[in-house]
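Continuing the series of single-chain predictions for the mutant panel. This is the parent chain; the variants come on the following pages.
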Amino acid sequence: MTREMVLYYTPADSPNVAKLKSVLVRMGVRIKNISSEQTGQTIGYLAGLPGFVQMEACAEEGTVGGSDACCNPGLRGSAPPIPCEVLVMHNFTSRRMDALLLNLRRAGVPKIALKAVVTEHNSGWTFYHLYEEIKKEHEAMTPPSGHAG
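Parent structure:
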C-alpha cells in the first residue's frame, strides 16, 4: 500500500504546527508542507502522483514555452496567498482518517476547517483551486453567525 501523505498549508508559523506534525509523525504519515509559492501547482504533482509535472510560472501573457498549460492563466504555477490552514489527505482509509482527526483533537490542535482528500477528480486542480472549492463548500455548509433566521 502507498504511504499516507498530508499536504499541509499554513499561512504563518502557528504554534499548532508542531502539535500537528508530531501527531502525523507518530502515525507514520508523510508530511508535505505546501509553501505559498507552491499553491499554483497541481494536487497530483504535490502528492507525487505519476503523470503530473511541476508547472512553471509564465514570464509573460501569451508566451508559449513548449506547453500550452504553462500559459493558461488557471495553470500558472503561482497563485494568490491563502489566508488560512488547508489540510489535504492522500491514501487514507476512512478508519485512518478518523484516527488522524481524533489524534489531532486529543493533541489540542484547533479544528482545521478546510480539509480535503486527493481524488481522481481534483488531482488535476491547482492547490489554490482546491482551496477555493472547499472554502465555498465550507461556507455553504456553515450557518452565518449573527444573523437572525
